[in-house]
Amino acid sequence: MIQKTLQSIAAMCCGALIRKQDGEVIIQGVSTDSRTVRHGSLYVPLVGERFDGHQFVVPALEAGAGAFLWQEDHGTPPEGPVVIVKDTLEALQSLASSYLKETGVKVVGITGSNGKTTVKDMVTSLLETKYKVHKTEGNFNNQIGLPLTVLAMPEETDIAVLEMGMSGRHEIELLSSIARPDIAVITNVGEAHMLQLGSREEIARAKLEIISGMKPGGLLIHHGDEPLITQVLAEPETKKPEGLQTFTFGTGEDNDDYPTGMMFHAKGMIFTSDRHPGEGFSLPLLGRHNVVNALAALAVAEHYGLSEEQIREGLAGLRLTSMRIESIETEHGVTVLNDAYNASPKSVKAALDVLGDIKGFSRRIAVLGDMLELGPREQEFHAEIGQYISPDKVDMVFTYGPLSTYTAEAAKSRLPKGQVVAFTDKAALIESITKEVTHKDVVLVKASRGMKLEDVVEALKSLHSRDNDLRG
């Protein structure tokens, strides 16, 4: 974490000390929450529409904070080591940007409609075989979370892997200006945030903001099967660093790297690619889309000089953020594919492909909940999922939520009668699915986070072995 004198902190965030003698106070770490303040840390009181952290400065000092920032429009600060700033959020962001510049750490920025967290985890696991790596934890990928991630970074870090999220235009542009990436990865352009942005073209423009703050000569690694990225790159309004390099990955053979072979097994995939034709890499993740995600991570690894053996070691040790097609084998013989963290049309189709590729189970059952924030075409997008369903992918479908009724209606023409059931009551859904599943079924659970379908996962995990003759 950042360790500086308060005088250095003031200079890095464009602030001013009230008392010169406070400049020698040593700061270790930063917190924006008075409840998580550590001894000697800097407390940054942020201001929002419904909260103002300035009212918690005194409790933060009592909890051990070494100093605090104070926004100049808030009157006289309480007693204690303080740095006066124009805006506390901007000061936090400036502090993080200055810290990255001082440490000289290399930065890999990752964004995309789907798969950015998975690629972040892959890149980190690979790079850790050779370097000291610091990555975004959880969902700390916005205008507050990214600076806090940076300021928690040990000074001896070699490479920072930073996830960049957004809900509208110019948000990633801000994050890119803070992080100044050496490498930027765009996993894909989907339909998430259609409500805010209105079109996939605008989503592509928002994602490509990641290159606006890149260092000169930076490398953009992007999904080459997505023509919108190429289109927006060519637009004169797109801000690009001098000497931008590009690398494409995808399924098409015109990409710089693409899969040349894939084998499926219960716990993941074995694959080869055009640039890695040898004996193949073992990926402990399910799905063709994750092989494509892995190609993006391999491109980062190659750029930083990892050997094939280090890549193999990194993939073997991959640790994923939870609820992203997590395969759970219950003690009752039911396998649950838990992907209840998020959902968009592209990611739901990819998850259904995973279900279709899995063999050796009695039945393949999909539990699909609403996909949120899709804008005025949300009903159409849900119906498209139903039309995508087919007997070679799914044997039975349960849907949950008012929007998913459109999925169910479309799916009824694709599956035998009685194999599609729609619910708007979660308790009724859980009762039905837990009565239905039997030994050796595989159940995919997929929905937007707001639908909280992890409740279904927990219900399936807690079934008693005597129920439904689950032991066969």
Describe the overall structure.
By secondary structure, this protein is α/β, with parallel strands linked by helices. 32% of the residues lie in helices and 21% in strands. It has a six-stranded parallel sheet with strand order 9-10-8-11-12-13, with helices on both faces. A six-stranded mixed sheet has the order 17-18-22-19-20-21, with helices on both faces. The protein has a five-stranded mixed sheet with strand order 2-7-6-5-4. β14 and β15 form a beta hairpin.
Name the features.
alpha/beta; Udp-n-acetylmuramoylalanyl-d-glutamate--2,6- Diaminopimelate Ligase, Chain: A, domain 1; UDP-N-acetylmuramoyl-L-alanine:D-glutamate ligase; Protein-Tyrosine Phosphatase, Chain A; 3 domains; 6-stranded mixed sheet; 22 strands; globular; disordered C terminus
Helix count from the secondary structure assignment: 16
CATH architecture of the largest domain: 3-Layer(aba) Sandwich
Strand order of the largest sheet: 9-10-8-11-12-13
Number of domains: 3
Q: Give average pLDDT, whole number.
A: 93
C-alpha-based Rg, rounded? 24 Å
The tally of beta strands, per DSSP, is 22
Task: Based on Cα principal axes, name the global outline.
Answer: globular
CATH homology superfamily of the largest domain:
Mur-like, catalytic domain
Binned, the helix content reads 25-40%
Structural class based on helices, strands and sheet pairing: alpha/beta
Largest sheet: 6 strands, parallel
Kindly report the CATH topology of the largest domain. UDP-N-acetylmuramoyl-L-alanine:D-glutamate ligase
Determine the strand fraction and express it as a percent band.
15-25%
Please report the distance between the alpha carbons of the first and last residues.
54 Å
The CATH C-level name of the largest domain is Alpha Beta
Low-confidence stretches: 465-472
